[in-house]
Amino acid sequence: MRSEDLAPFSLSALVIAAVFIIAGLPVWWKTTAVYRAPLPVEEIGRLRDMKILYTVEVQLSGPSVTLEVAKRLEDLCQNKTALKPSLSVAYKLRISNLPKLDGASSLSSLDDTLSSSDAGDIRVHELAVDSQAANELKSTGKDIWLGCHRTVFTTDMSASLPRIAKLITNLLVRESLLRRSYQALSVSDHTQEPRTAANVKSMTAVQSKPGYQLSFNLLNSDPSDFLVQWDIKTSVGDALIPFLNRLDNISTFSIDSQILRYIDLGVTPKYHAENKTYYLSFKDLPHTINTVESRLGTFVSSNPSLEFVVYVPPPSQSPLYIKDKTGQNVASNAYLSPRWGGIVVYNPETADGEESAKAVTVPTSSIMSVFISHLKLLLGLEKPKLPEGTFLRSHSSGITDWELDGLMLRRCVENVATASAALVSLTKLLEKVKNMVIADHIQTLTATAVESIDKCVSELQSGHLVQAFLLSKIAIESAETAFYDPSMLELLYFPEDQKFAIYVPLFVPVGIPVLVSCYAVLQRWRKKTAKPES
Questions:
Q1: Structure confidence at residue 471 as a pLDDT band (50, 70, 90)
Q2: How far apart are CA 484 and CA 480, in angstroms?
Q3: Cα–Cα 20 to 30 A to 419, which of 168, 263, 283, 329?
């Protein structure tokens, strides 16, 4: 074929190649590009090395309070601090001058009068000598009185300073518990602590969540023997609701109840011939949870559920008692399952010769007090261990102001650690899956979470506990919403190596003819340019 006849063919091949390269590839690249909104990656990376400093303001007042006393107490508190660099506590002490309030006031009324301090702040007040409040405290045989608000009273400030410092650091602030909570969830502190009794005990509490579902269950093992009823609604209104109202700012709670028939614990109790009683040993208790949990059912709720169960055994296994590790009967005849709930065994009175089912009403008022103690442990409100010579005033609702502050502080630290870990995990996932879509709402959520974490840490450093906690709730909700978004699922996207299996069948049939044509044109052009030289 003459070269003049091949000219149109060469021209068409070059045009096709040019269109393929200049127009086709950019259009394909643009139409298959994945939209990835920019995230604050640098700010999220700094969360790994984030430092948290919580400032506690301690106000001192009383007749013998001086700057020397305040400095000594500050040194004692700081010396007690054993936290890691990632989480530390600073004590800011100041002396406040109060009018003579305790001249003719009881300790309770004085405690209520001084209850206006902000959340997280602590007041230490020395009582005037021979005042009514001082004489009342002396009559208890103690020299330190911890109120139900945020005030510590003492009859001798100088002599009791070491114990007051221990009371502040170990009970009111609970530094060691903060350290364990933060280290368990933090992305910046991976130090492993030895497995101590305190560490194991801290695992009883559930993780911080915006809300919880409280389920009260009455298990009637055999209705032919006992027809069991209860007035749970009255007990909830009288005892539980006042307790939950105090926790409104921390979490929300929903309550449900049910009565289940023909359900046992799934474990055969052992018989004590001498006492003619039945018992469940400490080793038997974990085996009862699986059986009971499988029969309780679930309620429609997005919040984690905490189960509280009252079990009424049949007459053939009554009376039934629960034994502790030492083999002694538990006074409440109840036991707690960490992060799950609690079970109370109620033994109704029986009478010989009864042929028909006996109607039994469970005393829910006394049982509810056991459930509230279980709930406090599940929420992280451990029973306080008071220093020697300290008297504790309880609150009518079952939870004091300083316990609320401690719970709020712990939840705040946990929220910050969990939110930071969620954001870091999200960035790792996005770095791993390069073709994962990052929508605009994911960008907004992550930016909100990072900003809230920064502001929360700043508020903690300023000692503003309530503001810091509210910001921590925004941070964890935004971070977890972004992390668990349906579009943030790795299985929705093809791995990089599988893209070749998708695009090769599309581009090879088109690309090979174009490349062969371009190669033929190039060869002819070389031959044509080589003839004049020869």
A1: very high
A2: 6
A3: 168
The residue with greater pLDDT, 196 or 344, is 344
* Cα–Cα distance, 343 to 307 (Å, whole number): 8
Q: Which amino acid is at 62?
A: G
pLDDT given for residue 101 in this prediction: 62
Helix (H, G, I), strand (E, B), or coil: what is residue 476? helix
CA 208/CA 160 separation, integer angstroms: 36
30-47: burial string, b at 16+ Cβ within 10 Å, e else = eeeeeeeeebbeebbeeb
- Domain residue spans of the chain: 3-33+494-530, 50-182+386-398, 211-378
Q: Which residues contact 461 (CB under 8 A, 6 or more apart)?
A: 53, 54, 55
Dihedral pair phi/psi, residue 300, rounded to 5°: -70, 105
In angstroms, rounded to a whole number, what is the distance separating the alpha carbons of residues 448 and 244? 29
**pTM exceeds 0.90, yes or no:** no
Which fold is adopted by the domain 50-182+386-398? Rossmann fold (3.40.50)
DSSP 264-292: --SSPPEEETTTTEEEE-TTTHHHHHHHH
Distance CA 172, CA 392 (A): 12
In angstroms, the CA 255 to CA 240 distance is 10
Structure tokens at 156: 């001798």
Question: Do 148 and 393 contact (CB within 8 A), yes or no?
Answer: yes
Helices (H), 101-156: 107-113, 132-139
Helix (H, G, I), strand (E, B), or coil: what is residue 216? strand
The distance in angstroms from the start CA to the end CA of the chain is 21
